[in-house]
Structures are given as C-alpha cells and as structure tokens.
Amino acid sequence: ANKSPPHAHEAKPAKGGVVTVVKDVNYELVVKPDTISLYVSDHGKPADLKAASGKLTLLTAANKTDVPLNVAGDRLEAKGNFNLAPGTKAMAVVTMAGGATTTVRFTLK
C-alpha cells in the first residue's frame, strides 16, 4: 500500500510559492520582482502575525541580501527590487508575539 506521509497534504503551496514546514507550522514564501511575501499558517489557519516581525536573508551565487519583513495584513512582507533566480536560497527569521523565534529555510523554484 502506498501510504503518504502525515501532513503531506498541508505542505502544498496555497499561494503558488515555496512551502517549508517547521514544527507543524506552514511557511510559504511568494516571490515577486518587487515584493516577497511570507504567509504563516498553523494547521490550515493563518497565524496571528499582529506583533510579529522578521528578517529575510537571500543568498544567490553572487551576493547576500538582508531585508526586513514587516506585517502586511495576513502575511509578512519585504519590499525591494528582487532579481531572484531558481535555486536562490532564502532564510527567514520570524519572531512572533511573545518573542519565540523560528528560522525557516527555502530554496526558490
């Protein structure tokens, strides 16, 4: 029998981005040329990001860029001019209300 791993269905991108799951929380990174959005959901429900903050580090072959992540409604968002190729590595450090910090790694497709 072909049994799929638990939670596999939750890791599908909801917004067309790249998903990483850390401790049952889904982090989805959506990259556009001028905006990078990070959606956080816990068991399918959007996480409470009211007091959240974060930083995004982008690693390409040529350089390393740090950009702040700010709350924008249901997501954390970084604004800038992003010329990112597939294979670019992104590392988000997200600090939630209460001070719990999570590091999430992505590889862009």
> What would you call the quaternary organization?
single chain
Q: Radius of gyration, Cα only, in angstroms? A: 14 Å
Separation, N- and C-terminal Cα atoms: 31 Å
Q: Would you list the SSEs in sequence order as H and E?
A: EEEEEEEEE
The major pleated sheet works out as: 9 strands, antiparallel
Number of strands: 9
Structural class: mainly beta
What is the general shape? globular
Question: Poorly predicted ranges (pLDDT <50, ≥5 residues)?
Answer: 2-9
Tally of individual helices? 0
Q: What percent of the residues sit in helical stretches (DSSP H or I)?
A: under 10%
Mean pLDDT: 88
Residue share in β-strands: over 45%
Overview of the structural elements:
The chain is mainly β. It is 0% helix and 52% strand. The chain has no helices and nine strands. Strands 1, 2, 3, 4, 5, 6, 7, 8 and 9 form a nine-stranded antiparallel β-sheet that branches. The protein is globular.
